[in-house]
Amino acid sequence: MQTNDVIASIGRMAREFHRRQDVSMLTLLKECGYFDRSRDITIDALQAHFAAHSDDLDAWVLNSYDNRSSPAWYVAQPGGPGDKWVVGHQPGAQRDYFENGAEACAVYVKRWLEAVSRFTEHATYKSLERTRDR
């Protein structure tokens, strides 16, 4: 799968997750080829996708609001006039502010992807460790 196809699939992933309701986000990441192209997925490319596909941006924001895990990244829309988009980490005080929703969503998704990758690598390593110890 080409990098642009993976970026488009990642962009659509939150909508696909809600539409299918029978698949995990991790499974969708595997299906789209992210783990083979993770180094090629940039904030700029994600931002371009979200700028062109506001429905995908909205779905990722909704997915962030629906996330009840901790620790976790989140993205929040401006709460009122003069407010900015926020990408933060819970728990913790780390917050970054953005004027642009496409940029905020791209940063959020990139951080989410990196966190999932670290978790997946750790889980794979632990699984291999258990297999080896048997």
H/E element order = HHHHHEEEH
Oligomer: single chain
Number of structural domains: 1
Strand order of the largest sheet: 1-2-3
Taking the sheet with the most strands, its summary is:
3 strands, antiparallel
* Amount of helix: 55-70%
**Portion in strands:** 5-15%
Apparent shape: globular
Radius of gyration: 16 Å
* Spans of at least 5 consecutive residues with low confidence: 122-129
What key phrases describe this protein's structure?
single chain, 134 residues, mainly alpha, three-stranded antiparallel beta sheet, 6 helices, 64% helix, 11% strand
Structural description of this entry:
With 134 residues, the chain is mostly helical. It has one domain. The chain is 64% helix and 11% strand. The chain contains 6 helices and 3 strands. Strands 1-2-3 form a 3-stranded antiparallel sheet. β1 and β2 form a beta hairpin.
Give a topology summary:
Layout: H1 3-20, H2 25-32, H3 34-37, H4 43-52, H5 54-66, E1 72-76, E2 85-90, E3 95-98, H6 101-133
Helix pairs in contact: 1-2, 1-4, 1-5, 4-5, 4-6, 5-6
Q: What is the compact description of this entry?
A:
By secondary structure, the chain is mainly alpha-helical. Helix content is 64%, strand content 11%. Strand 1 (72-76) and strand 2 (85-90) form a beta hairpin.
